[in-house]
Specification:
- By secondary structure, the protein is mainly α.
- The chain contains 8 helices and 2 strands, in the order αββααααααα.
- It has helices at residues 2-58, 100-156, 164-170, 173-206, 218-224, 228-252, 255-258, 262-280; strands at residues 64-75, 80-91.
- The protein has a two-stranded antiparallel sheet.
- A hairpin with a 4-residue loop joins strand 1 (64-75) and strand 2 (80-91).
- Helix 5 (218-224) crosses helix 6 (228-252) and helix 6 runs antiparallel to helix 8.
- The radius of gyration is 42 Å and the shape is flat.
- Mean pLDDT is 73; it is low at 61-78, 92-101 and 208-214.
- This is Ion transport domain-containing protein.
């Protein structure tokens, strides 16, 4: 009996839920029908106003007034309604017989005006159709581009080497802290090297032994043997930055180029490439060390 009571109670609850659901469905359906009915009525009213204003402007006659007649047919049981739009001509003076020539001239003028209005409406409708088509094509193209970009990012982000431990190490606090320290020391080194180079240049200029091809590049002082440790420090920092880029590339794989820090990764890669170019072109007077100072902005 207890089980039967429980089943009966559950059945009653289900029936109440079904009744409530049906009631909500009927309420929503009634609300939608009322909204559609009001929308149709407002659209019909707007159409009548537009037709009346248009006829009052373009379809006047000399012997009568052209007016709008609307006949509505409603069926309350089926909740359907229809409207019939027609035009009535009310003469100004019933006793006066209109002249056929004037009526023909006025009718012709009215016909020409109506044709002109129809052509203008057709041109505007064609322009709106072209604008809608162009907007639809642009929207579709943008949607296709977004889908292609999302697909490319998804394919590029797929991990293939699965260096998970290396990724955890690269994204860890120790590695990031070490690279921050390297960047700070590199900026301090660049400032100190430029100060040493400037002092050496001023001393040579004061001694009148400077040559016309001398400049303030740190690598040129190192090549001439005045300060060989500058070149060693330059190579050391460059090797550290190259190792950082390689480790991040192996750990992040495709996310290196499409991840959240893709901009900084590409920026660091370009700066590292400039360092390698500076060392490779040491004999051509190329000095790009000032660019590496920008790397310190990545710490922020």
């Amino acid at each position: 009996e207890t089980v039967l009571d429980v089943l009966i109670a559950e059945q009653d609850k289900m029936q109440e839920l079904l009744l409530g659901f049906n009631l909500r469905q009927h309420e929503q359906l009634d609300a939608q029908q009322l909204h559609v009915k009001r929308t149709l009525e407002s659209q019909q009213l707007k159409l009548e106003q537009v037709l009346e204003s248009t006829l009052g402007k373009w379809a006047g006659t000399r012997e009568g007034v052209l007016s709008l007649a609307v006949t509505e047919t409603k069926k309350f049981n089926d909740e359907e309604s229809s409207s019939i739009v027609g035009f009535n001509v009310y003469p100004n003076d019933e006793d006066q017989a209109p002249r056929r020539a004037d009526l023909h001239s006025d009718s012709l003028k009215t016909h020409v005006d109506m044709q002109k209005l129809k052509r203008e409406f057709s041109h505007k409708q064609a322009a709106l159709s072209n604008l809608s088509l162009d907007y639809g094509c642009a929207t579709h193209g943008w949607h296709v581009l977004e889908q292609a970009t999302a697909r490319a990012v998804q394919v590029a982000s797929k991990r293939r080497l699965h260096f998970d431990n290396l990724a955890a190490f690269v994204e860890g606090q120790y590695f990031r802290g070490f690279m921050v320290a390297v960047v700070v020391f590199n900026a301090a080194y660049i400032g100190f090297a430029m100060d040493v180079t400037l002092q050496a240049a001023l001393e040579e200029d004061a001694n009148a032994v400077s040559r016309s091809e001398d400049d303030f590049a740190t690598w040129k002082r190192a090549v001439r043997g005045n300060s060989p440790w500058l070149l060693v420090a330059e190579v050391l920092f460059t090797v550290l930055f190259v190792l950082e880029i390689c480790l991040r590339l192996l750990a992040l794989e495709g996310d290196f180029f499409v991840g959240q820090e893709a901009g900084w990764n590409v920026f660091d890669s370009l700066l590292t490439l400039s360092s390698l170019s500076e060392i490779a072109l040491v004999g051509f007077g190329v000095d790009l060390s000032f660019m590496r100072v920008i790397r310190i902005t990545g710490i922020v």
